[in-house]
Amino acid sequence: MRLARHLGQAVAALLFAATASADLVPIPAGFYRPLFRGETDAKEISVRAFALAATPVTNGEFLEFVRANPKWQRSHMKRLFADDGYLKHWAGDTELGERCDPSQPVTWVSWFAAKSYAGWKGGRLPTTAEWEMVASAGFTKADGAKEPEFVKAVARWYATPAPETLPAAGSGRANIFGVRDLHGLVWEWTSDFNSAIVTGDARGDTGLERQLFCGAGSLGAKDTANFPAFMRFGFRSSLKAAYTVHNLGFRIAKDE
Questions:
Q1: Are 49 and 243 in contact, with CB atoms under 8 Å apart?
Q2: What one-character DSSP code corresponds to residue 36?
Q3: I want to staple 108 with a disulfide (CB 3.0 to 4.6 A). Which of 56, 62, 90, 244 is the partner?
Q4: Contact status, residue 196 vs residue 216, Cβ threshold 8 Å
């Protein structure tokens, strides 16, 4: 049954690829297996079909946003919505400068800024369930855990420090859905980043516990070998919405 579902997901991804735009990739409905769950919680969570940006938002794209929305420029930013590091690597409010390339993923942006950008583009931030479901897909298989080359690549990515100069967004190898850079480039904001346990499709789940953090909760983990997932869980749990980080960016999603 599980194999049939993986095969169906892979076929759907290939069919959807024909209609994908250069920016947004249609993602077929699938399922997400939470890293942490109680004994009575569902083993798999259904995720509805949606569209996800093929690459993270770049400096150049975010520059267009702040030019069109001055309140999100660095000198106008209220500390309620971003800490002192907001866009600190840019030369100015509307200048990237020599340290930033327009093609690099934008970093030093808060969750509030990322959410506002996504809305400006007519989209939203992906949920954790959506992000993790797409990130679990391998280069050639819907279930990346069954693809040794993908498993090794992910492990290598998470064991290597981020380079001082980030590569261009989209430089990574695409997974089976046609999405790039979910691993190995920057961490990424999700809409419900501070929800440690996703108990349903996050777009309709009103019962999420918003203040859970990594710790003793790891005793309930169902995949103790998935170290990269533990890293993502711990990183997300450490964040607050106004934080900005040198290797934290985002991408947008849209409902189908």
A1: no
A2: B
A3: 244
A4: no
For residue 164, name the pLDDT band (cuts at 50, 70, 90).
confident
Q: Is 12 helix (H, G, I), strand (E, B) or coil?
A: helix
Condensed to tens digits (0 to 9), the pLDDT of residues 170-184 reads: 999 999 999 999 998
Region for residue 143 given its phi and psi (left: phi exceeds 0; alpha: psi -120 to 50; beta: otherwise): beta
Query: What residue type is 115 in one-letter code?
Result: K
Strands of 22-147 (E only): list them. 24-27, 30-32, 45-47, 50-53
Q: For residue range 237-246, what is the model confidence (pLDDT) as tens digits?
A: 778 999 999 9
Please provide the distance, in angstroms rounded to a whole number, between the alpha carbons at the two ends of the chain. Answer: 26
Q: What's the predicted TM-score (pTM) here?
A: 0.78
Amino acid identity of 123? G
> Average pLDDT over the chain, rounded to whole?
80
- The confidence score (pLDDT) of residue 165 equals 87
H helical segments located in 53-190: 59-68, 111-120, 128-135, 148-159
Q: How far is CA 135 from CA 41, 157, 239, 248, in A?
A: 22, 13, 20, 16
